Amino acid sequence: MKPQHSFSLTHLMRGCGLAICLLLSACSTTKVQVNVPQHLFNDAAFAQSTPAPNPQAIFQVSDEMRQFIAKEIVTQIRSSSHQRALFNALYTKAQLKLEYDSSYTRNASETFASRSGNCLSLVIMTAAIAKEMGLDISYQNVFVPEMWSRSGALYFNVGHVNIVLGKRHFDDRNHLDKNYQMTIDFYPPEDTAGQRTVEIAENTIVSMYFNNRAAESISAGKLEQAYQFARAAINADPSFVAPYNTLAVVYLRSKQAELAYASLSHALQLEPSNKVAMSNIIQAAEETGRDEEAKRFSTRLASLQPFPPFHFFKLGMKAMEEMDYRVAKQHFQKELDRAPDYHEFHFWIGMAHLRLGEVKLAEQHFNAAKSNSTSSKDHAIYSAKLDRLNALKSQIN
To answer: Which pTM value belongs to this model?
Structure first.
């Protein structure tokens, strides 16, 4: 039986903790024009049972959203700037009662209707409302420390973006005037303070949205849908690297290794040190008989990433299977040292503590797993574990 392969994907989500700050500096980059590489697509291999993804639908404003603008935002504009009125209506007065949900990247109207979404969804919804109000907007890619999540054999490299409302405006003393421009960031300020930002175009945001939907479709086992989203992401911004990797994962899972190799090669031409693409091209090279090339990529990746994402987690899970809970705890702690807020690491180190009879420490980590969970499904799992633990404690007492 062949071992199950794991794949790495890029996913824009990040956990949300709303922050608002002034735009102090933002680096702009001029992208080299990249044409859509039509030779990487294989439409004939994927039946299109649903309409092709529509970029215009991403920012579409619903009647409900227009009513919200008229009732909750326009009424504030007389006593506040347009930007401040939008921010207050959406996020300060909490009329929407937004909830974070990483399970699905929603478009603007879906996010508003469900009152939930990941950070890319919230950026898109905010942008749609701001544009409906006639506000100038721009987007930023925020360079945060590397963060990963997983779903089965899929590993997601998690990125972060935010949105800027209004144009830059300086007062008579050459100070940035916060009444003209503000940045809305859906991540705790302590985690983004001092981080470098790069302004990105809206077509890149569109590409990120479609790439997220492609990754989520792969996770759900819907390869035909994933292909259509990955294709749409590349068409939206051919210079954005992530969708080529996502398309390659679709090809690898549908036994089209040559096309996977071609797509990953294209990604690495655009960004030679992209570790996500490099981790996947190793398998594509092996499956296409390029063994020497696979070895070179493996050596290169090992130099860039000596301990891959979830390396110690896998060792910890192996130790759990062998009932060596002290060793498992050590491995899980190493992962927590790298990603202190990742819910699954807290859950499993909690399980190791529980197996060792360290109930209080187990409870602390189960609570941390629950508070850091990013989907209703995970939240329910951790809540149930805490309920069982509390029931056990009451029996002992």
So the answer is: 0.84
For 311-390, the fitting CATH number among 2.40.440.10, 1.25.40.10, 1.10.10.10, 3.40.50.970 is 1.25.40.10
Say whether 150 sits in a helix, a strand or coil. strand
Given 3.20.20, 3.30.110, 1.10.8, 3.10.620, which CATH number is that of 7-31+42-213? 3.10.620
Which region holds residue 152: left if phi is over 0, alpha if psi is between -120 and 50, else beta? left
Give Cβ neighbours of residue 223 (< 8 Å, ≥ 6 apart). Answer: 46, 217, 250, 253, 254
How do the pLDDT tens digits run along the chain, 397 residues long?
A: 344 466 666 665 544 333 333 333 333 344 567 899 999 999 999 987 788 899 999 999 999 999 999 988 888 877 678 888 888 888 775 556 677 777 789 999 999 998 888 889 999 999 999 999 999 999 999 887 778 888 778 888 888 899 999 865 555 666 655 556 788 887 665 555 667 889 999 999 999 999 999 999 999 999 999 999 999 999 999 999 999 999 999 999 999 999 999 999 999 999 999 999 999 999 999 999 999 999 999 999 999 999 998 999 999 999 999 999 999 999 999 999 999 989 999 999 999 999 999 999 999 999 999 998 877 788 888 998 898 888 776 665 5
Number of C-beta neighbours around residue 193 at 10 A: 9
